[in-house]
Specification:
By secondary structure, the protein is α/β, with parallel strands linked by helices. It has a single domain, classed as Rossmann fold. Strands 2-1-3-4-5-6 form a six-stranded parallel β-sheet, with helices on both faces. The protein is globular and about 40 Å long.
Length: about 180
C-alpha cells in the first residue's frame, strides 16, 4: 500500500475481535497503539503513548482512528512537535466526549481540540451514530480541515455495523495515500 506504517487508534474500550480495526490488524499487519487504560481513558496518557509509538517507528506513519481515537489525533497534533511523523489520518466515527452522557468517563477529553490538523485527513460520519451527531461530526471535519464523507445510516461504524473487513474503508485509506 505504502511505505508508511498504519497505526490503528481504537476508541474508548478498545476494538473487539469483530471490529474492522482488529480485522485490519490481523489481515494487513497494521499496528494497534495499545493504551494503558481502555476503560477510563486519560487524554494526557493517550497522547503520551501515541507520541512514544510514533517516535519508535522507522518511517512515516498513517493514523487510522475510530471514535475517541479521532479526538486523540486532534489532541496529539495540537501538542506534539513531531507531527511531521504522520503523513495522513483516516478518522472514522468520531466520538463526542462533550456529550452529557459521556462526560463522567471522558471528562479529561474536554474541551475537544478544534484546530486544523497539520496533515491530510479524511473524516467519516454517520446519521445514526449513538456517540456523535452528524452535525457534530461535520463540525469536527471542518475544524480539523478533514475531507468529509457521509456514510449514511452506518451506526458507530464498528463491529455492530456488520462491516466485516470493511473493504470500502480500506479503499478510502488507499485513496488517502
Amino acid at each position: 500500500m505504502t511505505d508508511a506504517q498504519v497505526l490503528l487508534l481504537p476508541g474508548w474500550q478498545n476494538s473487539g475481535p469483530d471490529h474492522w480495526q482488529s480485522r485490519w490488524e490481523q489481515h494487513f499487519g497494521d499496528v494497534r497503539v495499545e493504551q494503558h487504560d481502555w476503560m477510563q481513558p486519560l487524554r494526557g496518557d493517550w497522547i503520551a503513548r501515541l507520541e512514544d509509538v510514533l517516535l519508535s517507528q522507522k518511517g512515516p506513519s498513517v493514523l487510522v482512528a475510530h471514535s475517541l481515537g479521532c479526538l486523540l489525533v486532534a489532541a496529539w497534533a495540537a501538542h506534539s512537535r513531531h507531527t511531521h511523523l504522520v503523513s495522513a489520518a483516516l478518522l472514522v466515527a468520531p466520538g463526542d466526549a462533550e456529550r452529557e452522557e459521556l462526560q463522567p468517563v471522558l471528562k479529561s477529553w474536554s474541551p475537544i481540540v478544534m484546530r486544523p490538523l497539520p496533515f491530510k485527513s479524511h473524516l467519516l460520519g454517520s446519521h445514526n451514530d449513538l456517540y456523535c451527531s452528524l452535525e457534530r461530526a461535520k463540525a469536527f471535519a471542518d475544524a480539523w480541515g478533514s475531507q468529509w464523507q457521509d456514510c449514511g445510516h452506518a451506526g458507530h461504524i464498528n463491529a455492530e455495523s456488520n462491516l466485516g473487513n470493511w473493504p470500502e474503508g480500506r479503499a478510502l485509506l488507499q485513496s488517502l495515500l
